[in-house]
Specification:
Elements lengths: L1 E3 L11 E3 L1 H8 L7 H4 L2 H10 L3 H13 L15 H18 L19 H17 L3 H8 L3 H4 L8 H7 L5 H14 L9 H17 L4 H12 L5 H18 L6
Antiparallel strand pairs: 1-2
Helix pairs in contact: 3-4, 4-5, 10-11, 10-13, 11-12, 11-13, 12-13
């Protein structure tokens, strides 16, 4: 199924959106990107932003969903065209409905999204997205339609609350955070227990990034950090590292992370 969206001239560059089954029919079958299942998780996350082929992008999302990597950790998101914006949103929907099969959405007709994945499921999803996209509806509309709480939205990429989006804006200061952590690690090198300051600062930066993406949940951040980087960390240890990040920013960063 294809949707041609013409009511908003300022909409994203590509105004024709296809469902996954329609893309597969046009291609003559599903994506044959065999390397996806063999790739490590961090490589797949990196591919999210750079992948131009919609079917490959969806295959990457499916593999990360299988590995229990929440959409919010597949950052930065790939929404440069309407087609890819749809697939990014669909990854959010897939993540939530697979893990909350008994959830009752706010809009009764959206109950079909909580049924097993099929061609009919994909057709329903693209109708929901197309209706909203044509009218410029965003996260608020989907939140109401799905009856989501802030906690429900924590691990999603596109269906965020205004406050959650605001809390993620600190990621714009990543370069400043890198610099502050590097200076802090160098200044405290004698306490590092033999580890190089560059290694310490890099690890703390990745922990901080995971913590921000997890909406400041130490439990979620610790779980996903360990899964993505293969570096086991407990919630308590993560909390100590975030305290060190805060100390580094107070000493070497700007006054406020905005």
């Amino acid at each position: 199924m294809a949707l041609t969206l013409t009511s908003k001239p300022e909409a994203l560059a590509l105004d024709c959106i296809f469902s996954i089954p329609a893309l597969e029919r046009a291609r003559g079958g599903a994506s044959k990107a065999a390397s996806i299942s063999e790739s490590d998780t961090l490589t797949l996350i990196t591919r999210i932003e750079s992948t131009s082929d919609p079917l490959v992008l969806w295959a990457v999302h499916l593999e990360l969903d299988k590995r229990d990597i929440a959409p919010i950790f597949r950052y930065p998101k790939n929404t440069s065209t309407s087609q890819k914006a749809y697939l990014t949103w669909l990854a959010d929907i897939l993540w939530y409905v697979r893990r909350n099969t008994q959830h009752k959405p706010g809009y009764r007709e959206w109950q079909v999204l909580f049924r097993p994945i099929s061609d009919a499921w994909h057709e329903s999803a693209i109708r929901v997205f197309g209706f909203a996209h044509q009218r410029g509806y965003g996260a608020t509309y989907y939140t109401k339609g799905l009856a989501l709480s802030d906690a429900d939205r924590r691990e999603l990429m596109t269906i965020k609350s205004t406050r959650q989006i605001a809390r993620m804006r600190v990621l714009r200061q990543s370069s400043e955070m890198h610099a502050a952590l590097t200076q802090y690690a160098a200044a405290n090198a004698n306490r590092s227990g033999g580890r190089q300051p560059a290694d310490i600062s890099k690890r703390r930066y990745l922990i901080w990034r995971a913590y921000v993406l997890a909406d400041r949940s130490e439990t979620v951040a610790a779980r996903l950090y360990s899964q993505i980087y293969g570096d086991e960390i407990t919630r308590q240890s993560l909390g100590k590292q975030i305290a060190a990040v805060d100390a580094a920013w107070r000493k070497f960063g700007s006054n406020v992370l905005s």
